[in-house]
Structures are given as structure tokens and as C-alpha cells.
Amino acid sequence: MTDTADLAQSLREVLGRAQRALREQGGRKGLTASQTEALGYVLREGPMTITVLANRLRVRSQSMGATVCVLRERGFVTVTPDPSDGRQKVVAATDEARAFVAEARSKRADWLAKQLETLTPAERQTLTAAHKVLDRLFP
């Protein structure tokens, strides 16, 4: 392996661990990763049909229908007929979903801030510099 390939592998591993650790801190209220991802799309992009949501996550509409059913039962989405095509259903996020996501983000940010406090000032400075580089890699 080259130095670049080794660095790429190492970064992939540490970023994966970071993602898992942050995910654990937010609390998922029993939602699966696919349910969380579907809710995230609806929150970011606004109301959309089950078909569009299924396409975004690259799953079948039937599978997405089951995912949406769970999210609706939990009070995170509403499902209404599409005004332009009554055969379609439109999924929209609820205020409860927005509050859930805001609370989860806050928990993750608080946890990460506590982790950063364990570092020395020099280590935090190094992370600040690395952040700028990572921001360029992942715009």
C-alpha cells in the first residue's frame, strides 16, 4: 500500500468510529438506521411522495411504505393523499420529529464538546487545522 492508501484506510476507519459514536449519543427512540435516514430526507427536503422517498434511499416503494408506517405510528410523519395524484401518498415531518432531531443533535454536540475538553490546547488546535482540511475533502 502507498502512504496515501494507508491514510485513506485509516481515515475511513476513524471517521466510521466517530459516526457510530455520535449516532449512539443522539438516541434513536428505537428507530432503525433506514427509518432515521428516511426521516432525515423528509426533514431536509420537505414533503414528498413515498415513491420519491423510496428512490432517494434506493429501496422499493413497498419497503418504504413499511418504513413510513412505523414513522407515522411514532408520530414523526403524517401521510396524506397527493393532491395531483390520488394514488400517491405524501409524507411530511411533524413538529414532534423536528423536536426529536433537535434534541438528538444537541445531545451529540454536548457529548462531543465534553470529549474535546479532554484534549490539550495543542490537540484542539491540531483538530481545528484538520477540520479545515476535512471540510475541503467533504464539501
Q: What descriptors fit this protein?
A:
139 residues; 71% helix; 12% strand
Report on this model:
Helix content is 71%, strand content 12%. The protein is elongated. It has helices at 3-26, 33-45, 50-57, 61-73, 95-117, 121-137, and strands at 48-49, 77-82, 85-93. The chain is α+β, with helices and mostly antiparallel strands and 139 residues long.
Q: How many alpha or pi helices?
A: 6
How many strand segments?
3
What fraction, in percent, of the residue positions are helical? over 70%
Order of helices and strands: HHEHHEEHH
Spatial strand arrangement across the major sheet? 1-3-2
From the spread of the alpha carbons, the general shape counts as: elongated
- Structural class based on helices, strands and sheet pairing: alpha+beta
State the end-to-end distance.
Answer: 27 Å
Work out the strand percent. 5-15%
Computed Rg? 19 Å
**Low-confidence runs (pLDDT<50, min 5 residues)?**
none
**Mean pLDDT rating:** 93
Question: Sheet with the most strands?
Answer: 3 strands, antiparallel
Brief characterization of the structure:
Helix 1 packs across helix 5 (95-117), helix 2 (33-45) packs across helix 3 and helix 2 packs across helix 4. The chain has six helices and three strands; from the N terminus they run H-H-E-H-H-E-E-H-H. It is of the alpha+beta class.
Draw up the topology in text.
Blueprint: H1 3-26, H2 33-45, E1 48-49, H3 50-57, H4 61-73, E2 77-82, E3 85-93, H5 95-117, H6 121-137
Antiparallel strand pairs: 1-3, 2-3
Helix pairs in contact: 1-5, 2-3, 2-4, 3-4
